[in-house]
Amino acid sequence: MDRRFVTVVGSYNIGLFYKAPRLPVVGETVIGDSVWEGNGGKGSNQAIAARAFGAPTQFIGRIGMDHYGQGALALYKRYGISTETIRIDYEDHTGISVIFVDKDGANMIMVCPGANYRLCEADIDAAEPAIRRSHIVGFQLENRLAVVDYAIRKTRTLGVTTLLDPAPAVKLPDDLLPFIDYIKPNETEATVLTGIPVTNVATAMRAGLWLVDRGVGTAIVTLGEQGAVVTDGKTSQHYPAPKVHAVDTTGAGDVFCGAILAAFLSGKPVEDAVMFGNHAGALSVTRLGVIDAIPMRDEVDASLHANAALV
């Protein structure tokens, strides 16, 4: 079978962004500078990023029968993402995220999943033809864990490569790990998954090896401005990120995931895919928002070229 697609199983949330000089503490009111709306949800962001980087992309998820859901469908149409496996839920609202951002780009996020939590095993079964024509399928944890678990196992059983971005972080069933070809936790998520406090390259390598020893094919532990560590059981390698001035770090991990999904579809090996993801994610934090911050592919290629020239 000619597997020509990136598929993402995941969430869509409308993002409500509030920017202030600093983030509030518990019980405190802070006067903000600005507010805006943006399309979001980790799965949706990753699908749009993959498509923006040139990959034919399909999305599997649920949205509500409200104006936010209609906006999601319009968004996917604009980007050319297949929506045949998106279910309209008539009993719950489209997912909503509230994001607070400070002057340095740090953020706090609350997610109300709504229809995302009504994605079910039957939806995954109905999407089997889409999964079968995929080169790789990406997952996150903004849907119910039981459904994500089911979808990963089904995808891998069908012989399709799986990539899990384990966010928001929760402990995973031990017997699920062998069905995950690639796992991409950040420092916090790697700490939750493994119990190893991940703060630097060395501890990221330890956490990656912990995951691989338990059945994961390759662990890609991201370290923000420090880049990423790739561990496959044979070697562990650190791939640094380019130096940039961060304006808003929201969604950088999603841009990274979308970039590596697209890179894998185009046949790049993991080391090239991760470097592409590092530069894509780094460029995205220099701009506000998530989708609007996704760089053009030629910008990422130029950043890679400039970085190579400095080595």
CATH architectural label:
3-Layer(aba) Sandwich
Number of helices: 10
Shape: globular
Q: What name does the CATH topology carry?
A: UDP-N-acetylmuramoyl-L-alanine:D-glutamate ligase
Provide the spatial order of strands within the biggest beta sheet.
5-4-1-8-9-10-11-12-13
Beta-strand portion reads 15-25%
> Compute the gyration radius: what is it?
18 Å
Structural class label: alpha/beta
The number of distinct β-strands equals: 13
Compressed to H and E, one letter per element, the order equals EEEHEHEEEHHEHEEHHEEEHHH
Low-confidence stretches: none
Mean pLDDT: 93
Walk me through this protein's architecture.
Helix content is 36%, strand content 22%. It is an alpha/beta fold and 311 residues long. It has one domain (5-11, 41-94, 116-310): UDP-N-acetylmuramoyl-L-alanine:D-glutamate ligase (3-Layer(aba) Sandwich), CATH 3.40.1190.20. The chain has a nine-stranded mixed sheet, with helices on both faces. Strands 3-2-6-7 form a four-stranded mixed sheet. β6 (95-101) and β7 (107-112) form a beta hairpin. α9 (270-284) packs across α10. The chain is globular, with a radius of gyration of 18 Å.
